[in-house]
Design goal:
Elements (H helix, E strand, L loop, with lengths): L1 H16 L7 E4 L1 H6 L2 H38 L5 H26 L4 H28 L3 E4 L16 H47 L14 H32 L1
Helix pairs in contact: 3-4, 3-5, 5-6
Length: about 260
């Protein structure tokens, strides 16, 4: 109620202040935006899977603890008072450990809340950046969140800019994906150039040593073609070396 009163006061003040040109007001529904973002769905699924895993773990530990309680009750008549007290103390300690673990995972400051904030924060930042972009370009004086604590008793659909926010975020994400693909293609081209340069350097060294007169390649070869070419050249060198040895051996025998 207090926030609602503050909102009304702000609107009244702004209406007076901007009476010359009129006040531009818009609102967004962040829950609607989040539900229509694939990134949020993936994040939510990850959190739900993790929360379910923690929940099963806690349930299993409580089940084991109940089995220990039942076993103690069944053996109570056969045990001494000291042994019964010792086992009851162990059960109580284990119970407190499970409760502490449950609080650590699901408490108000637990891992689930912390990780939700960490995963959701980048998406919320995207929404905020898109809101600022629209507010600046269309000269909005106020933009409210329909799903926040401030109660909107009435809202005209024409002032809802949620779909515009979605379009901006989608366009930004598509541009990032396009940049990523472009960088990948650029990296592949750089790899080809590096492979070509390495091959040219190897051929220069061979020519300097007088081992072959193989010309430099006129086109960029793929990694597979380059490997096949090198193997072919090695085979030719070995065969040539064998021919020289055979001719020398024959010449010596004839003499």
């Amino acid at each position: 109620m207090k926030k609602f009163i503050i909102l009304i006061a702000a609107l009244l003040i702004s209406s007076y202040t901007f009476s010359q040109r009129g006040v531009r007001i818009g609102y967004v529904d962040t829950e609607y935006i989040l539900q229509n973002l694939s990134e949020y769905e993936e994040t939510r699924d990850q959190l739900e899977e993790k929360a379910n895993r923690w929940k099963r773990e806690i349930e299993n530990r409580f089940s084991d603890l109940n089995n220990k309680k039942e076993a103690l009750n069944a053996e109570r008549l056969l045990l001494t008072e000291e042994l019964i007290e010792e086992k009851e103390e162990e059960i109580e300690i284990e119970k407190n450990e499970i409760l502490d673990y449950q609080q650590k995972r699901f408490g108000p400051r637990g891992d689930l809340i912390i990780q939700r904030k960490q995963l959701i924060q980048p998406i919320q930042d995207q929404i905020f950046i898109a809101i600022k972009e629209i507010a600046k370009s269309r000269k909005y004086d106020f933009i409210f969140d329909k799903s926040a604590d401030i109660v909107m008793l009435y809202s005209d659909r024409k002032f809802d800019i949620s779909d515009q926010i979605l379009r901006i975020i989608t366009r930004t994400n598509n541009r990032k994906q396009l940049d990523s693909r472009r960088e990948k293609r650029q990296a592949e081209e750089e790899d080809k150039i590096i492979a070509s340069n390495l091959e040219a350097e190897d051929l220069d060294e061979v020519e300097e040593e007088g081992k072959t007169d193989v010309p430099k390649p006129e086109k960029v070869l793929s990694a597979k073609e380059l490997r096949e070419k090198m193997l072919r050249e090695r085979k030719e060198k070995i065969l040539a070396s064998r021919k020289v040895k055979d001719s020398t051996f024959i010449k010596n025998n004839n003499n």
